[in-house]
Amino acid sequence: MGGIFANQRDRRNLTPDQLALVMGRPFNKAKKPGGKAWRSDLPQKDAGEGSTRDRLATVYGVSTATIERNGRFAVAVEKLKGVDPEIEAR
Questions:
Q1: What kind and span of H or E run contains 76?
Q2: Which parts of 11-63 fold into alpha helices (H)?
């Protein structure tokens, strides 16, 4: 997963909002419906102990607060796509 993120992060045409989506979507995907993290898409060797939030923060090189904030941002974008499907392209 880290390689995919590094590739996306290093693309110069991504906005900060697009980078937030690249980080927030995997976090949301790894959470239980109740909001607690329960699994990780990280390879087993990278999974280690700790929460998904902690592991993703390490992979992406950001704080756990940034991971949570980006997760909330990704949820908001998905809701807005119901009103304006082209919102993500802006």
A1: helix 64-83
A2: 16-29, 44-47, 52-60
The helix (run of H) or strand (run of E) holding residue 9 is helix 2-10
The torsion angles phi and psi of 28, rounded to 5 degrees, stand at -65, -35
**Rounded Cα gap, residues 11 and 60, in angstroms:** 15
In this predicted structure, what is the pLDDT of residue 34?
60
Range with lowest mean pLDDT among 11-20, 27-36, 45-54: 45-54
Q: Coil, strand or helix: which one is 37?
A: strand
pLDDT at 65: 95
Residue type, 18: Q
Maximal C-alpha separation, the chain: 40
| Structure confidence at residue 70 (pLDDT) | 96
